[in-house]
């Protein structure tokens, strides 16, 4: 087999650079700082147009799907795969071997970057008018900002990174507050100029974020490993969450009647995808568990409901039933029309952030 030119380059180039700069070369698996040599030739695109003759049907389709082939119609991997089906005879009709010497020089450039770092923490949201992520409908913004932006903009500023990517363990609705110790979250910080943070740095970053907007407050900021990020997604589907809801009944209720809600333990719900989220989630019936409920009477039609449930339980639908798409629900259990006026998430039971101990 022929050894690709790229492999030969990879064998020779690192040694030459190491001897010149006096630094140790490491692979991408262990290094956190990268120097990329970019070689460009102005006639590269023109030369690659021969692929339209060698594989006309394939490259005609590629030209229509620029949103799919975001690396360009003539990516190295794509051309390599396409040539696998081209016969030697057909290839020789378009290319001479050896190839002609270029009549214009190559252009060399360097790109320097760092590996991403991951910042974990927890956030509280004290408003009912803020989405977790930017809320756009047909390109029109519906709220002035979001939890992601209020925190992420300050993280990007403090660490001087090119981009931040937000992840969280679940999400609350726009009109739902996030209280207690907060919701676990993380940011991937791309090409951050600052990668080592002291305890003082974390304190300064926390203050910078918390002073930015009083409705969003963070705590427990720490650097976490990429491998620990999967715990956020596990928490989204597997962990318990605690809620407090303000509920109202159509008719006056008897205290003994609503108090029977406290007798239920590990109540299994059949929850069909709520009507309000059908536009973004597939219609399906999912089993969810209400581990326990508590009730506090406020007046003859108002009461406060405390709920501990499995992650992903739709609490609003647990209360009003969503036209019987959630069974059982408070309407069917109590025998009176019941609705929800306000909802708070009061705890997400997930150990986070996970800080790796130094060896």
General description of the model:
The protein is built from twelve helices and 14 strands. It starts with a helix and ends in an 11-residue tail after the last strand. Strand 6 and strand 7 (about 175-190) form a beta hairpin. It has helices spanning about 5-20, 45-50, 50-55, 55-65, 75-85, 90-95, 145-160, 200-210, 230-240, 255-260, 315-320, 330-335, and strands spanning about 35-40, 105-115, 115-125, 135, 140, 165-170, 175-190, 215-225, 240-250, 265-270, 285-295, 300-310, 325, 340-350. Helix 7 (about 145-160) packs across helix 8.
Radius of gyration: 29 Å
- One letter per element, helices H and strands E, the order comes to HEHHHHHEEEEHEEHEHEHEEEHEHE
What global shape is seen?
A: elongated
By secondary-structure content and strand pairing, the structural class works out as alpha+beta
Helix content: 25-40%
Beta content: 25-35%
Number of strands: 14
> Which regions are unreliable across 5 or more consecutive residues at pLDDT < 50?
none
Mean pLDDT: 91
User: What's the N-to-C terminus distance?
Assistant: 44 Å
What profile does the largest beta sheet have?
Answer: 10 strands, mixed
Count of separate DSSP helical elements: 12
Topology:
Elements: H1 5-21, E1 33-40, H2 44-48, H3 51-54, H4 56-64, H5 76-83, H6 88-94, E2 107-114, E3 117-125, E4 136-137, E5 140-141, H7 147-159, E6 163-168, E7 176-190, H8 199-212, E8 216-224, H9 230-238, E9 240-249, H10 255-259, E10 267-272, E11 285-297, E12 302-310, H11 315-320, E13 326-327, H12 330-334, E14 338-348
Parallel strand pairs: 7-14
Antiparallel strand pairs: 1-2, 3-7, 3-8, 4-5, 6-7, 9-12, 9-14, 10-11, 10-13, 11-12
């Amino acid at each position: 087999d022929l050894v690709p030119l790229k492999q030969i380059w990879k064998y020779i180039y690192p040694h030459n650079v190491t001897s010149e700069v006096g630094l140790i070369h490491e692979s991408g698996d262990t290094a956190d700082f990268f120097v990329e040599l970019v070689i460009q030739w102005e006639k590269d695109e023109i030369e690659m147009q021969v692929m339209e003759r060698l594989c006309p049907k394939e490259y005609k389709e590629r030209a229509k799907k620029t949103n799919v082939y975001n690396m360009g119609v003539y990516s190295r991997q794509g051309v390599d795969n396409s040539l696998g089906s081209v016969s030697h005879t057909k290839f020789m009709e378009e290319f001479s071997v050896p190839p002609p010497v270029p009549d214009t020089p190559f252009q060399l450039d360097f790109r320097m970057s760092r590996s991403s770092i991951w910042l974990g923490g927890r956030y509280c949201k004290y408003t009912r008018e803020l989405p977790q992520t930017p809320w756009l409908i047909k390109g029109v913004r519906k709220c002035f900002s979001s939890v992601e932006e209020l925190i992420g903009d300050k993280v990007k500023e403090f660490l001087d990174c090119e981009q931040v990517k937000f992840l969280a363990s679940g999400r609350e609705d726009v009109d739902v507050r996030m209280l207690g110790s907060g919701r676990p979250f993380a940011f991937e910080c791309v090409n951050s100029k600052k990668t080592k943070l002291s305890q003082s740095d974390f304190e300064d970053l926390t203050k910078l974020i918390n002073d930015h907007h009083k409705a969003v407050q963070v705590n427990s900021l720490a650097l976490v490993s990429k491998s620990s990020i999967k715990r956020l997604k596990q928490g989204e589907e597997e962990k318990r969450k605690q809620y407090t809801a303000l509920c109202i009944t159509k008719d006056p209720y008897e205290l003994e009647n609503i108090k029977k809600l406290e007798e239920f333990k590990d109540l299994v719900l059949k929850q069909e995808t709520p009507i309000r989220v059908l536009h973004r989630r597939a219609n399906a019936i999912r089993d969810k568990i209400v581990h326990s409920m508590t009730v506090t009477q406020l007046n003859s039609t108002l009461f406060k409901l405390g709920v501990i449930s499995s992650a992903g339980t739709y609490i609003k639908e647990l209360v009003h039933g969503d036209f019987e798409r959630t069974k059982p629900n408070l309407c069917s259990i109590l025998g009176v029309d019941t609705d929800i006026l306000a909802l708070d998430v009061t705890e997400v039971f997930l150990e986070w952030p996970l800080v790796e101990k130094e060896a």
